[in-house]
Amino acid sequence: MDRARDERDVDTLMGQFHEYLTKKTLKSTRQRDIIARQFFAADGHLSIEELLALAREENPRIGYATVYRTLKLLTECGLAAMRRFGEGQAIYETAGDTDHHDHLICIECDHVLEFSNDDIEKLQDQVARSFGFNIVRHKLELYGLCPKARGIKGGSCPREEEEARDAREARDREHN
User: Fold this and answer.
1) Domain ranges in the chain?
2) pLDDT tens, residue by residue, 121-135
3) Residue 95 neighbours by CB under 8 Å, 6+ apart
4) What is the pTM of this model?
């Protein structure tokens, strides 16, 4: 997946969000727009805390409750999907416009890796048909240990790599 969504996609999703707010006679506030735009531009899964940090880069006065309520609205209108892997905290991803994918979750560092595999999809359909089922929807979550958590010499942690990359990008944005 690309690191960030195309700006046209973000604008389209923002338009859908504004239509929902209008239909529900709710205000489109600057803080809601910042939160929604940051959410739609992000790649992968975000916790409320991660989205709060992104939104505060644009407006330090945005609060946790505003992020929570905005994510609730985005979920209600079908633009966000909440996921809870294992017993971990709720995380959110853009819904509806994303391709189907499954998840690998490290039980040590909580990193969530998205993947797609046509062979797995075909096998799931084959298994379902063998029992007379027609799959309508599904989710596949595989839990395990990343290379670092497994103790592999020189093994890396995808979460640490992602955080380091995000920190570098934030520094680059500050300098530009």
Assistant:
1) 1-98, 100-176
2) 999 999 999 999 988
3) 75, 78, 79, 80, 81
4) 0.64
